[in-house]
Amino acid sequence: MKTVRDYQPAEQTRKSYVKAFYITIIGNLLLVAVKAVVASLTGSAALYAETANSASDVVYSLLMVFGLWISQKPPDHSHPQGHSRFEPLVGLLVTFSMAFAGYQAASTSILKLLAGGIAVKPGLPTLVLVMTAITKGVMYYAILQLSQKTQSPALHATAQDNLTDVMTSSAAFLGILGSYYVSPLLDPIAGLLVSAWIFKAVIGLILENIKYITGGSADKDVVEQILHITNSVPGVLRVHELVTEYVGPRLVVEMHVNVRGDLPLTEAHRINDEIVNRVLHNVQDVDRVYVHLEPENES
User: Fold this and answer.
1) pLDDT per residue over 108-121, tens digit each?
2) How many CB atoms lie within 10 A of CB 77?
3) Same domain, 36 and 143
4) What pTM, to 2 d.p., does this model score?
5) The most confident of 6-20, 46-60, 147-161, by mean pLDDT
6) What is the strand order of the sheet 250-259 is part of?
7) Family per UniProt (predicted)?
C-alpha cells in the first residue's frame, strides 16, 4: 500500500535549490553594490534602508545553501523521519536576516527624522529604486516557481522577501520624490514605512516556520478537506479520530476510520488504499497518510 506522496526526484530538487541560490546571490550582490554607492552619494535614508535590506539578503543566501543541503540528507538513525525540519529552520534564518534589515532601516530613518531630513534630488536614486523593483519582481516570480516545485518553506520565505523588497522599493521611491517636491521629512518617513513593511513580513514568516518546526497541526480548512475526502469514500461510515502534524514542511495524517465489521479483508484493504490515495492526490501539504480501520461496533 502506498502511503507517501511522490515529489520530484531528489536530483531535480537539488537542481532547483542550486538555481534558486544563484538567482538570489547574484541579484542581491548586484543590488547591494549599486545601492551602497548611490546612498553614500545622496545621503537618502530611504535608499540606505534599501541597502541594508539587500545586504541582509546576501547573508541569508549563504545560510540558505547550508541549510537546504542538510535538509536533503536521507533518513538515518538520528533522524528516522528525515532532515526536512532543517528547511523551516533556514526559513527562520531568512526572517531573522530580514528583521535585522528592518532594525537598521528604522534606526537610520529615526535619526534622519530627528535631524529634520534632507531633500534628495530625483534622478539616480529613483532610477536605482526602479531597477530594484523590477529586479526583485523577476526574482520573486522565479523563486516562487521553484518553491512550488519543491514545496520548500525556505524558498517560500525567500520569495516573500523578494516581494517585500518590491513594495519597499516603491515606498522608498515615493519618499525620495516627496522629499524633493513636498518636504524633506518624507524621505525618513518612507524609510520608516520600509522598516514597518519588513517587520510585517517577518512576523508572518516566523509564525509559519515555527509551526513547521514544532510539529503544529494543519489549518482548520485543511482538516475539513481531509474529513470530507475520507467520508466520501464508499464503505466509510465515519472518521472518529484524525490527527495531523507537520514534520518539517510536510504534513503527516493519521486517522481512525469506522467501517462495517463484517467486511471481507480484501474490501477493507480497498477502502484503506482509496482513502490514502484520495488524500495524497487532493491535499497539497500531505506527505504521508496512515489509516487505522476499525469495525463500527468496537469504536
Assistant:
1) 778 878 877 666 67
2) 5
3) yes
4) 0.62
5) 147-161
6) 238-247, 250-259, 286-295
7) Belongs to the cation diffusion facilitator (CDF) transporter (TC 2.A.4) family.
